[in-house]
Amino acid sequence: MEEPFANQYTRRDILKYSGVAALTLAVGGIFVGCAKQSTQTETASANRDNAATTASLAGSSLNIYCGAGMTDPFQEIADAFKAETGCEMNITFANAAQIQTQITTTQEGDYFIAGSADELKPVADYVETSTDLVKHIPVIAVPTANPKGITALGDLANCDTLLIGDPDSTPIGKIAKKALTDAGIWDTLQGKNAITTTTTAPQIATALASGEGDAGIVWKENVKADGASILETSDMDAYVKTVPAARLTSVANKDAADAFDAFLQTSTANDIWQKYGYELAGK
């Protein structure tokens, strides 16, 4: 603010109209001083607000269930929320069936971050609200050398070992069974005992990278280890799901939950999801 105000006067003008200029500069100084004081006041106020927010959640905690396939991004989001608010974040990472059982048995917990909205149906009576966060994208992955020459969903019939999630307990397993059934090759693969199941999605990509399978159906973000690659095909586009944040009826600290609801919509949370390869819901 000081420079534009000062640049309205040349040195000659100041000498010629020194009295007026001195008065003007003095008044300007007052305005600048006031502006600086105002800025300092606003900064101090913002600091107080931030301190108040942090202080208000210090000693609070949230208990959250999250699908194991989202461990890395969600742990980072939880850590960022804790750093901003002081709220302790107790997270249980497990497959959907284990989480559903825990919710119905204990009737405790604040949130369920599920691999797809379908996983909320068995615990619908315990869900207070649900907000879509990001898209959950299934892909076909193969070892980098692709020994079976897999190029499309139908080619998976040629696998001697096809890795998928457990169709009874994981959303990625249910999607794999649906896609293979729709392609007309589920019974073929079952008949030759070619399907190997895992209890969590990340195990599929890890096994592929270790040469323990010919191909697998897995979430896109889980394929990050050297030795495994995502097949370039649109065959799985019809099976894309959405990750919801379900706030449970058993939520114990509504202030902390309200703050976390808001945090999940911030650019900080969105940037973390996107860093791990997720696409924001609604885009």
TrEMBL record:
Among the GO molecular function terms of this UniProt record, one is: metal ion binding
Q: Which GO terms describe its biological process?
A: molybdate ion transport
Q: Which SUPFAM superfamilies match?
A: Periplasmic binding protein-like II
Highest taxon, organism lineage: Bacteria
Tell me yes or no: is Oxidoreductase among this UniProt entry's keywords.
Answer: no
Q: Which UniProt keywords apply?
A: Metal-binding, Signal
Task: Note the InterPro entries from the entry.
Answer: ModA, ModA/WtpA, TAT_signal
- Belongs to which family? Belongs to the bacterial solute-binding protein ModA family.
Give the protein's recorded name.
Answer: Molybdate transport system substrate-binding protein
Specify the species: Denitrobacterium detoxificans
